[in-house]
Every structure is written in structure tokens, then in C-alpha cells.
TrEMBL record:
<dbReference type="GO" id="GO:0046872">
    <property type="term" value="F:metal ion binding"/>
</dbReference>
<keyword id="KW-0732">Signal</keyword>
<feature type="domain" description="Tyrosinase copper-binding">
    <location>
        <begin position="111"/>
        <end position="128"/>
    </location>
</feature>
<dbReference type="InterPro" id="IPR008922">
    <property type="entry name" value="Di-copper_centre_dom_sf"/>
</dbReference>
<protein>
    <submittedName>
        <fullName>Di-copper centre-containing</fullName>
    </submittedName>
</protein>
<keyword id="KW-0479">Metal-binding</keyword>
<feature type="domain" description="Tyrosinase copper-binding">
    <location>
        <begin position="292"/>
        <end position="303"/>
    </location>
</feature>
<dbReference type="InterPro" id="IPR002227">
    <property type="entry name" value="Tyrosinase_Cu-bd"/>
</dbReference>
<keyword id="KW-0560">Oxidoreductase</keyword>
<dbReference type="GO" id="GO:0016491">
    <property type="term" value="F:oxidoreductase activity"/>
</dbReference>
<dbReference type="Pfam" id="PF00264">
    <property type="entry name" value="Tyrosinase"/>
</dbReference>
<feature type="signal peptide">
    <location>
        <begin position="1"/>
        <end position="24"/>
    </location>
</feature>
<feature type="region of interest" description="Disordered">
    <location>
        <begin position="159"/>
        <end position="184"/>
    </location>
</feature>
<dbReference type="InterPro" id="IPR050316">
    <property type="entry name" value="Tyrosinase/Hemocyanin"/>
</dbReference>
């Protein structure tokens, strides 16, 4: 009977939203459904083959050994020297910081725009490649399935063990933000592999209480030494990124414009609710949010959601685009021939049209 209900939920996701009973694996069911289309696209690829194909997994499904290998590689990037021009970005003290600077530089052109998905796909892939090519990592970029863990603090991602992405911040007295209430932390992260991590860049547009100290430079690139803070709790997951909500987003939005706008906007929307589930500083600053190492698992899931949405009608959902080129509105309409340039961290410049398939262009991976 349960399997019949799961199938019914996939066909009538709105009902599942009202009942709150979407199968925990309903998103995985959509992923499985779309895999045939991705395999068909793979067979046409001139750059990716089945033999080369890499598999990205949810953190909870990654082995303990592979989690430790991933964490080791992230810590390696944090200890490797920056490759940015000396003195131009004083707060960029290591290779990991180079990725943060890249996001800061382009924030207003990559959020609320037509390049949101493709830019972050390439950016997350470039990070994965840096872990592999610069720090000896042999695995892939894991993702965080938001709806799988109704209480994020109890998930293997944020439980504070040595195989997690570290735990919540220390519980301190603090106030709500405009996105949601004060949650269960607010202070410095003191458990797990990234305990006592040093943050230097930003803030630029902080949404955290207590407010982080101001950067000595107005652009946020100065040295501003402080701890990694988090304010994790279940509230925003329940309001914006449950499994039922993500399934409904994929099944109810049949064109790219409404899909990406609802993903990024909404009330609070999948993307926003996930970021502010981490929250605080730097996670609550949309310029510097990659300075929290959990960012990459979050955007692995955002890319996965786009991939699943595409795969439901892949031939008609790859070479499509909507939106403008500025988060603030105005400017030109985004085009598939627009360039994605993240040359601080990846030397090749691609057009958006080259970044819409996970089995073409520079990419050769799938989600499982």
C-alpha cells in the first residue's frame, strides 16, 4: 500500500504538500525516473563516457573513509597558499579563500539572474576539481538533501563528529533575522573538523545577530579575522525545503523561468531556506556564504534539483534560459551565449550553453 501511495504522491505532489506525507525518497524517485534521459544524453556526448562518469552522493550515503578524505582535502585547500595577485585581496590568505573572492566579485550577477544555475554548476565543479587536482582527493562533491534531515543538527552533516562538516555554533543569546527566528546556535563552531576555523573575508551584506565586525575595506576584501559561526535549526527546512516542497517545485514548474524564480525566491524558497538553515556569519551573507565549508554540499543539492528538473523533459530543458543579468533588475536579458568566467579558480571561460548538461562540456557526473 505504501508503494502505491508513493507513486500517487509523485503524480499529485500538491496533495502530498497538504498531507505532509511525501515519501522521503520521492525526490529520489524523480531522479531515477529521469536517469534514462540522462543516459541517452550521455550516449551522445563527445566528452563524457560511461567509463569516465563520476557519481555524486548524499553525505549520509558517503562512506566514513570517503567523508574523511573529503574533509582532509577541504582542510588542504584551506592551508594552501592563495593564487590571487598579492595585495589585491588581503583577506584571501589561502586557496580556499580564492573561491570565496570569486563569489563575492560576481554576487550581483549570479543571483536572481539567468546564469544562477549554470554559474553555480561550474563553480561547484571547479571546487571539486581543485580538491582532486590540488589536494589529492579521489572522490566527488557530496550533496546535502535538505528534506532528508528534518533536524539538521542530528544529521551526519552537522552532528559535530569528526566525519561531519562540523556542528552548530555555540548556543548564545541572539535575535531573529528578517528570514527567520533565532535558532539553536549563533556563536562560534567548536566541534568537528572545522572547529576554530578562521574567517577573514567579509562581511559585505550580513544577516546575523550578533552582527559580525565590519571589514576594514568597504568591499569586504580586507583582513577581518573572526571565527566561523552558525545558527542551525529545523525551522527553515520545514518552511522552505522539505522533500514535498522540492518535489512540488520540480513537478509543478514546467518552464525554466518559474522554476528558477521559485527556487531562489518563494517564501522563503528552497535556496534561501537552505542557506539560512546554516545562517549566521559567513553563512548568512550571500556574498561570502562559500566561506562556510557546508556551502558546497548545499549547492551540490541545488545543482541536483536543477538536474532532476531538467531530466523530466531533458531535450526541452537544457538549452533554455530566462531572466536578466543583474540581481537588482535592469540590464540586458541573459543569453545562452553569455560567458561564465570564474578565472580566479578555473582557467577556461564557457558560454552558458556549454554548461547546461552534466554529461557534456567540462562535466561528466550524475547524482545518485
Amino acid at each position: 500500500m505504501l508503494s502505491i501511495y508513493k507513486g500517487f504522491c509523485l503524480l499529485t505532489s500538491v496533495l502530498c504538500l497538504f498531507t505532509g506525507e511525501a515519501s522521503a525518497d520521492a525526490l529520489g524517485d524523480l531522479q531515477t525516473k529521469g536517469r534514462t534521459a540522462i543516459n541517452t544524453q550521455l550516449a551522445k556526448s563527445t566528452t563524457c563516457t560511461a567509463a569516465k562518469l563520476q557519481v555524486r552522493k548524499e553525505w549520509g550515503n558517503v562512506s566514513v573513509a570517503d567523508r574523511k578524505a573529503y574533509i582532509k582535502a577541504v582542510l588542504c585547500l584551506m592551508s594552501a597558499p592563495s593564487k590571487l595577485p598579492a595585495g589585491k585581496f588581503p583577506g584571501a590568505q589561502n586557496r580556499y579563500d580564492d573561491f570565496v573572492v570569486t563569489h563575492m566579485q560576481q554576487t550581483l550577477q549570479i543571483h536572481g539572474t539567468g546564469s544562477f544555475f549554470s554559474w553555480h554548476r561550474y563553480y561547484t565543479w571547479a571546487y571539486e576539481q581543485a580538491l582532486r587536482n590540488e589536494c589529492g582527493y579521489n572522490g566527488t562533491q557530496p550533496y546535502w538533501d535538505f528534506g532528508k534531515w528534518t533536524d539538521p543538527e542530528k544529521s551526519p552533516i552537522f552532528d559535530g563528529t569528526d566525519t561531519s562538516m562540523s556542528g552548530n555554533g555555540k548556543k548564545v543569546s541572539h535575535k531573529a533575522t528578517s528570514v527567520g527566528p533565532a535558532q539553536n546556535g549563533g556563536g562560534c563552531v567548536e566541534t568537528g573538523p572545522f572547529a576554530n576555523m578562521t574567517v577573514r573575508l567579509g562581511p559585505v551584506s550580513p544577516m546575523a545577530d550578533p552582527a559580525p565586525p565590519k571589514n576594514p575595506r568597504s568591499d569586504g576584501y580586507g583582513i577581518n579575522t573572526r571565527c566561523l559561526r552558525r545558527d542551525i535549526g529545523p525551522y527553515l527546512v520545514s518552511k522552505g525545503s522539505t522533500t514535498a516542497m522540492m518535489v512540488n517545485l520540480i513537478t509543478s514548474k514546467t518552464t525554466i523561468g518559474p522554476f528558477q524564480d521559485t527556487m531562489q525566491g518563494g517564501n522563503p524558497g528552497v535556496h534561501t531556506s537552505a542557506h539560512f538553515t546554516i545562517g549566521s556569519d559567513p553563512g548568512g551573507d550571500f556574498y561570502t556564504s562559500p566561506n562556510d565549508p557546508a556551502f558546497w554540499l548545499l549547492h551540490g543539492q541545488i545543482d541536483r534539483l536543477w538536474t532532476i528538473w531538467q531530466s523530466q523533459d531533458l531535450p526541452n530543458r537544457m538549452q533554455v534560459i530566462a531572466g536578466g543579468t543583474s540581481m537588482m533588475g535592469g540590464g540586458a536579458a541573459q543569453k545562452l551565449t553569455d560567458n561564465i568566467d570564474i578565472s580566479n579558480v578555473a582557467s577556461k571561460v564557457y558560454q552558458i550553453k556549454d554548461l547546461v548538461s552534466i554529461t557534456d562540456g567540462p562535466f561528466c557526473y550524475v547524482y545518485e
